[in-house]
Amino acid sequence: MAKDSSGARLTQNLHLPKLLLIPVLILALALTINSSPDMTSRILQFFRLSSSSSTQNKMPSTAARAPVFKNLGAPGVDEYYPLNEPTLGTPYSKDEYPQNKDIPKLFDPITIRDVTFKNRIWVSPMCQYSAVDGQMTDWHLVHLGGFAIRGAGSIMFEASAVTPEGRITPEDAGIWSDSHIPQMKRIVDFIHGQGTMVGIQLAHAGRKASTLAPWVQDRRTKAGGVGSESSIAREEEGGWEENVIAPSEIPFSATYPKPRAMTEQEIDGIAQSFVDAVERCKKIGFDFIEIHGAHGYLIHSFYSPLSNNRTDEYGGSLENRLRLPLRIARTVREAWGPSKPLFFRVSATDWAEGPEKDEKTGEWRSWGIEQTVILAKELKKIGVDLIDTSSGGNWVKQKIPIGPGYQVPFAERVKKDVPDVVVGSVGLITSPQQAEQILQDGQADVVFLARELLRHADFPIYAAQELGVVVKPANHTFELESVTGIPVPEVPQQRDPGGTPFKELHRWNPGINLRATVSLPEPPPSGPSQRNCINMTIPSTPCRISSPDGDQEFLTALGRGDDTPILIMPNTLIENDQLWSVENQTAGRIAFLHRESKLYIGLPGGEPAVGQTLLLSKKPIFFTPEQTDQPNVYR
Fold it and tell me: Which of 297, 303, 314, 634 is catalytic?
């Protein structure tokens, strides 16, 4: 009884903090456990009651609590990136948006091996000439990351050299060293954080290596003098003109380095370099790999008879010329493993004069679509999943009939003759309707876009609107009305210079290529005495506007032939009222703006004609800047 009474008093009188109470109770338990099972039961019951009471006092019951909503991060990456559900560029459910009942082919997902791509608008690899010793920089993060936050279905890193001498220019990206892994992984993680698949193009420039970046070459040419026409990056310019390799000693042109013919040992070494690069790709986390076998670079120069006159097992017959390309593809496939896709970019023709095959002798004269189909069939046999169909780049005298979709027929031919391989088409695909038609007609399975995405980064969102489907934009978009109370105008048929409908222009605000609202007051009546007037018209084609003295000028954006307000940014700061002249006929309505000055436009009555003056007055106006796609407008 004494023990029971003592135990009861212990339970009733203890008011110590729980941290001090625990060791006391443990000691009591140790002293009594053998002598009084009943005491042990009371002590354990105390723990349960104390814990239950504490929980009830501090937290409401589960039934009474509201659901928990958190800004979750994207899975599978180290950094925190807010989760987009569904992923960017993915059509919403047709239950939520009835217009999504019939999804355009462009937004129909495609699965290759174990990787599913959310749509078929894919970013083609684009050399940036902005790396340092092969190391990508924040430029590449912004360049590639910008596509990820705009809904592209896939993004491919630029041609990345598997050896230092395999770079096109000294500033090309590389993947020949483990030191390249961290920065590439950082970019890959960001892209994955936006729910987008990302791959890399493994490359060796061959005889087109050790050249200058295009804008550097342009400066050299303009400077004139000895060597001004040369494309070669010399040693003092970071180049390696004495160590340029190719299947044969045939330079691309007189302005390019003269290569030396590769030994068989060097061929073995290059093949191994591709395999070594694959191991780094695994560590970085790429979803797919593309082998660059086009545009006159090393692999292309082996399979084309125009650049390969070897007499050993790597030259001569088509079988021999294909030996190295197929060897590289086979070993990359083996190293990459069975679960992830492997692509191969091919030039479907050299665009050389005459037929690719001499019908009299039966010899192949140049590279063309017939050999491309043979190569595609062999690549499919060894595990290549997608043929990325491009053209040219191997013959300096090539004459390319450039026009919209000029390379699509090559993709169509490959798809027709090798139907079980996925085919990508690239080259002057510039509108959603054009891209959709290519897919609907079975000419290709996916489309690669490059310059069009540089001109119009919002292309996936714009394409969805044009094709009548609603897709997920970035979390960071918002409806203007919900933030400012200013109604969003319903003018989806009107577009900005890049083609984005104005409704989406107001809404789409991903942080890069910032777009913001425009709200203009009703203009006062026009007349010679009116100043601070914004009622004017602008041409339906680009118009050049110059200052009174003629030393300052800029181009307008495209007009609409209606009352749509469009913002243009001059490259000069207007300090005082000035008269500027319009050098075209006009039709439309516009407001002009500089980053640091907000201007009304005064029209001295009627529509301006050629040579008529407009008055620009530096007065407050209540709209915010918008970046346009006109290169001569906003810098």
Answer: 297
